[in-house]
Design a protein that fits this description.
The chain is an alpha/beta fold. The chain has 7 helices and 12 strands. The protein has helices spanning about 20-35, 50-55, 70-75, 85-95, 125-140, 150, 180-200; strands at about 10-15, 45-50, 105-110, 115-120, 145, 160-170, 210-220, 230-235, 250-255, 260, 270, 285-295. Helix 1 packs across helix 7 (about 180-200).
């Protein structure tokens, strides 16, 4: 493989980028209390509670979204004094390429109010695709969501070339659900296992095909000229993340019960449907296209395909 990484020296498990997403935060606390769970022979694993002030306040953020604060221009602008911008610089100075303890891989744990199940979000770098293909082969319910690099450039994992964001749900903000906690823990353990095998140079084979969902855009709620909501997610679409949405099918319902249909020209697969934190971002859902690779090989790059 042309993009072969020699070895992983240091991995970072991050959580609490959003302070009211408890699954990753309490999983991080468990791993720190029982470090043998994340200890591997051939690389070091570090942990990070990314936004401790927001966690203490049980809020998504204090001043602004930390997961939109890692653009290179923002990291270099020392005049930006909001708490999250300062915190982003601190994190980058610790774990970024030129940081005190630079990491090779970042696993960033999030949760969502949308019915996303176990979702791994990454870009089309061959190493990342190998990792997520492995995770899907171990647990076929894992969904793989591919973002263009331009879409992830401001997130925490963007300070490192390798790794992924893990989104689990549906779970309410500021709430723990035991089944989702256990599923997330298993996913993190499997990811660490993969890194260990990768460093050993083991050739991993995948019996199953690879299914990915490639981000193509977002849709906002219908709003009036003042920006007020004029409709809700249609009941037939609610909680149908990763299911096909065909042209003409219901998408929104107005407050007086009128249906607004999807007017696109092709089938799409919505995700992050009705995510609570996205109302302020003007996002009712993200749209993806589905790509299935029946004979995926770990030496195959999908960069050109997606």
């Amino acid at each position: 493989m042309t993009n072969r990484i020699n070895s992983i020296q240091r991995a970072l498990i991050a959580a609490g980028v959003h302070g009211n997403e408890f699954t990753g935060i309490y999983l991080l606390k468990k791993l720190e209390q029982h470090p043998y769970l994340m200890r591997r022979d051939n690389f070091e694993t570090l942990t990070l509670l990314a936004n401790p002030k927001a966690f203490a306040a049980v809020r998504r953020y204090i001043d602004l979204d930390l997961n939109r604060s890692f653009k290179k221009s923002d990291l270099q602008d020392l005049t930006r004094s909001s708490y999250e911008y300062i915190r982003a610089r601190e994190i980058n100075n610790l774990f970024g390429v030129n940081g005190k303890t630079p990491v090779d891989v970042i696993l960033d744990i999030h949760s969502t109010t949308a019915n996303m199940g176990l979702t791994v979000i990454t870009n089309a770098h061959p190493f990342n695709l190998q990792l997520v293909a492995y995770l899907q082969s171990v647990n076929p319910s894992v969904k793989i969501y591919i973002l263009p690099k331009s879409e992830e450039s401001s997130s925490l994992p963007s300070i490192c070339e390798l790794g992924c964001t893990i989104e689990v749900g549906a779970v309410s903000q500021g709430v723990l659900k035991a089944d989702i906690f256990q599923q997330t823990e298993a996913l993190i353990i499997n990811a660490l296992n993969y890194l260990e095998q990768y460093n050993r140079g083991e050739i991993l084979s995948f019996d199953n095909g690879l299914t990915i969902y490639h981000h193509i855009g977002t849709i906002d709620y219908p709003r009036n000229e003042s920006g007020e909501l004029q409709a809700m997610i249609h009941p037939q679409l609610q909680s149908k993340d990763y299911e096909a949405l065909e042209p003409g099918q219901p998408m929104f319902m107005t407050f007086d019960g009128q249906t607004i249909t999807y007017e696109g020209e092709s089938t799409v697969y919505p995700v992050f449907i009705n995510e609570a934190a996205y109302y302020e971002k003007g996002i009712a859902m993200c749209l993806t296209k589905k790509l299935s690779i029946p004979n995926y090989s770990p030496t195959l790059s999908l960069c050109a395909s997606v």
